[in-house]
Amino acid sequence: MAEGADMFSLREVLVAFKGCLSEQQEVRVDPYLEGWKGLVRFLNSLGAIFSFISKDAVTKIQIIEGYRNSDQREKYLTIQSMVEYELSNGLVDLDKRSEHPDSGCRTLLRLHRALHWLQLFLEGLRTAKEDAKTSVICSDSYNASLANYHPWIIRKAAMVAFYALPPRNTFLENMNVGTTEEAMAMLGDALPFICKVYEITEDLYAQHKLLGLP
Ligand SMILES: CCCCCCCC/C=C\CCCCCCCC(=O)N[C@@H](COP(=O)(O)O)[C@H](O)/C=C/CCCCCCCCCCCCC
């Protein structure tokens, strides 16, 4: 495992996703990205075979961070304000990637779909038998979510990478939370927040017919 700033902390990921929800049930962008950065740290600790996945996640995080560091940063404070701003200013390619290939809305949609995978994966980890294979939990979750949006070549590469995942107990130990039971308990704490963030974003995107953005 990596050490120091690069070290994964499940607690930090939990705090980040908890911090996403505002009192008005809006989703704050900064903690959302922090949550993803924490997950990417974990992915990096699993080995180079996952780097094509973490690179893609990092690229998407950086695109949205770019908006948060721009003159329009206030418009990107929450996912709701981002959608409202980009749609009302014609900043989203709705049918084909052309003038605005990296809009906040389409970029966040990719992370949002991956959050669905994460939700299924964590639930699978939590409820599986002790001797269950992480690779099977991961591929089942992937096939039920993200795989539907990926071409054959990406699906193939992802499946190969999943085989390199450590057994469930080693995987839970790598979370640096303590015992396997403690890791499970923390997953149980984290999941409702991740699910809520997913649900609010899904409803918002559905309401604006953005779930199929190219
Ligand atoms: C709580 C700790 C335990 C869980 C730890 C999980 C750590 C996972 C960290 C990051 C997940 C990666 C998120 C990947 C985002 C992928 C977004 C995407 O779909 N991108 C594709 C489409 O983008 P555009 O071309 O339209 O711009 C892109 O083509 C993808 C390329 C890379 C392959 C993505 C495979 C995703 C597999 C997700 C499973 C990760 C396996 C982690 C194993 C623990």
UniProtKB/TrEMBL annotation:
GO molecular function annotations of the record: ceramide 1-phosphate binding; ceramide 1-phosphate transfer activity
GO CC, alphabetical: cytosol; endosome membrane; Golgi apparatus; nuclear outer membrane; plasma membrane
Any GO BP: negative regulation of interleukin-1 beta production
Organism from which the protein derives: Pelusios castaneus
Catalytic activity line of the entry: N-(9Z-octadecenoyl)-sphing-4-enine-1-phosphate(in) = N-(9Z-octadecenoyl)-sphing-4-enine-1-phosphate(out); N-(hexadecanoyl)-sphing-4-enine-1-phosphate(in) = N-(hexadecanoyl)-sphing-4-enine-1-phosphate(out)
Keyword Oxidoreductase: no
Membrane topology label: Peripheral membrane protein
Protein family per UniProt: Belongs to the GLTP family.
Residues annotated as domain Glycolipid transfer protein: 27-176
The protein's name in its UniProt record: Ceramide-1-phosphate transfer protein
Keywords: Cell membrane, Cytoplasm, Endosome, Golgi apparatus, Lipid transport, Lipid-binding, Membrane, Nucleus, Transport
Major location (coarse): membrane
Subcellular location: Cell membrane; Cytoplasm, Cytosol; Endosome membrane; Golgi apparatus, trans-Golgi network membrane
